[in-house]
Amino acid sequence: MHVSLLDVLRIKMEEKYEDGVKWKSLEHNGPYFPPEYQPLPDDVHFYYDGKKMKLSAAAEEVALFFAQMLDHEYTTKKVFRENFFKDWRKEMSPEEKSVIKDLDKCDFSEIHAMHKARVEARKNLSKEEKQTLKEANQKIVEEFGYCLLDHHKERIGNFKIEPPGLFRGRGEHPKQGMLKKRIQPEEVIINCSKDARIPDPPPGHHWKEVRHDNTVTWLASWTENIQGAIKYIMLNANSKLKGEKDWEKYEIARKLKSCVDDIRDTYLRDLKSKEMVTRQRAVALYFIDKLALRAGNEKEEGETADTVGCCSLRVEHITLHEQLDGSKCVVEFDFLGKDSIRYYNKVPVISKVFKSLKRFMDNKEPGDELFDRLNTSLLNKHLSSLMPGLTAKVFRTYNASITLQQQLKELTNKKLLSYNRANRAVAILCNHQRAPPKTFEQSMANLQAKVSLVERKKAAVKRCEEQLLKMEVQATDREENKQIALGTSKLNYLDPRISVAWCKNMDVPIEKIYNKTQREKFAWAIDMTEADFEF
DNA sequence: CTAGGAACTTAGGACCTACTGA
DNA sequence: TCAGTAGGTCCTAAGTTCCTAG
Predict the structure, then answer these.
(1) What is the CATH number of domain A46-128?
(2) Among residues A145, A169, A142, A141, which one has the least CA distance to residue A234?
(3) Which of A155, A367, A434, A463 could bond to A236 as cystine, CB 3.0-4.6 Å?
(4) Can you say whether the dihedral through the CA atoms of A318, A324, A330, A334 is positive or negative?
(5) Which of A226, A108, A224, A222 is nearest to A177 (CA)?
(6) Which nucleotides of chain C are near protein (any atom < 7 Å from a CB)?
(7) What SMART domains does the record point to (predicted)?
(8) Taking all atoms of strand C, which protein residues have CB closer than 7 Å?
């Protein structure tokens, strides 16, 4: 009987718990709430239209949020200011509301100066004061930062309720500047096991609900007021639960490795389909596979910044070039992706893809969807029929990891610059001998003499050279890294076992590759990986 | 099917700290 | 000794995916 990796996975998970159950027992102390608002000292004033004005606590708190951000460029943005002012007015008393009608007439400068002074003062605290502060923080971590999951003590990822403030968002976010409200215990749902001690709400308060749902991994949740999204308190990445999930993710990506050729054949064949949906799906898949684009869910207009992924690409985001820079069939991409990060790329594609794209763009406006018959759910449904567990994002994981493995193999060859040593080893093995040259003894002695003469200067030169080399490497590294964030891929896409195996093979200490946090997160991989691991 | 909700992963930026090189 | 930087941590926004109700 053939047992696939995924079957093994499923068996392993089932072994633990039946269907969807994530834990048997869960106990914790609830979330940590940010401190109450402290009103401004009496000598710090807000002015409206040049006149001193004492604000109510609620309005003052929001004014402080704005004053704190005054050095940031976005407090000058129209959308930000309008959203802020609208929300601020909601916090004002009727009297305040009747007076404060124009943000331009508001003078926050004293509040701003006070804030800057506070930041400065914090920076200038003595060593002892800083230590005291640190210990106080440590105390909070000890009390709220851990939970007991199936009787194992685990670190919680984000045990703090998000403090109130002004929403920024990324890119041209239509909701920037809106007030992100303070969360009360009455809005928080606690999740723990039935037999666990229910965490105490802050004095005088109660929880919204205490539930005992062991099919989810979160410990507490609340609904945030900007997008109406639910926020969760969950475990740290170094926890068993998260680690197993991570391992599972990479196993699915490895499974893709075994069938990616078939899948590629399939979508290349689908490019010729008479069905429009199928052709669009094939082109989208081609992009996702070749360019590691994200799936691209549709988003509600006006709720978020205008960003796209593969399925939500619009005609305006690509330009077709029959001929560009000596290549045929070039697609020029220019769009804002996740976090409003620009994706710009010129890619030669196969002619079938190129022709299909032309068709998709026929009779469309720039603002129209490129893949008008396609969405992520259709795409993922198709993918899961090709391989269980396969979704669009698996391609990113797979392509990232396989690329690392290939690159490491190539670099490895170069690194074994001791080609000559290898050659010699082979020669010894094969007994390829020769008689020592007659002049060997003398020439060696000569050399030795010269060596001791030049030694000193050489050492100096060597030091300089080493410095130079180091600087050159640094410069290259920095230049290449200018716009590249290595952390994200390391943390989310690269199967850690590739790196662990490489370290073992190359005799590189794992600390050179992973910092403490990363070692904790990837503890599962460090433990289980042999040098011969193949992704 | 479609929309919206829920749960979870992925992501960049702010801030903090330890190190380094002048 | 001190400023500047690199790297780590924290924070939470912004994605993906799955599920459910109509």
Answers:
(1) 1.10.10.41
(2) A145
(3) A155
(4) negative
(5) A226
(6) 6-19
(7) TOPEUc (SM00435)
(8) A 157-158, 160, 162-163, 165, 167-171, 173, 180, 224, 226-227, 229, 294-297, 299, 304-305, 307, 309, 337-340, 376-377, 380, 384, 389, 391-394, 478, 487, 515-518
Q: Six-digit token pair at A20?
A: 């969807």
What fold does the segment set A18-32+145-233 form as a domain?
DNA Topoisomerase I; domain 2 (2.170.11)
In terms of C-beta density within 10 A (0-12 exposed, 13-18 middle, 19 or more buried), how is residue A500 classed? buried
Question: What is the dihedral angle through the alpha carbons of A68, A71, A72, A73, rounded to the nearest 10 degrees?
Answer: 140
Q: A493 an active-site residue?
A: yes
CATH architecture of A397-528: Orthogonal Bundle (1.10)
Q: Which is the catalytic residue, given A250, A286, A343, A493?
A: A493
Which nucleotide's C1' sits nearest to the alpha carbon of A393? C16
Radius of gyration of chain A (CA): 31
**Domain boundaries defined on chain A:** 18-32+145-233, 46-128, 271-390, 397-528
Record the tokens describing residue A522, joined without a space: 């990837």
Q: What is the pLDDT along chain A (535 residues), one digit of tens a residue?
A: 344 444 444 444 444 677 789 999 999 999 999 999 999 999 999 999 999 999 999 999 999 999 999 988 889 999 999 999 999 999 999 999 999 999 999 999 999 999 988 888 888 877 778 888 888 889 999 999 999 999 999 999 999 999 999 999 999 999 999 999 999 999 999 999 999 999 999 999 999 999 999 999 999 999 999 999 999 999 999 999 999 999 999 999 999 999 999 999 999 999 999 999 999 999 999 999 999 999 999 998 889 999 999 999 999 999 999 999 999 999 999 999 999 999 999 999 999 999 999 999 999 999 999 999 999 999 999 999 999 999 999 999 999 888 888 877 776 655 443 333 444 444 444 455 554 445 555 555 565 666 575 555 555 555 555 555 555 555 665 666 666 667 778 788 888 898 888 888 888 888 888 888 889 899 999 988 988 898 9
- Residue A515 CA and nucleotide C7 C1' are separated, in Å, by 9
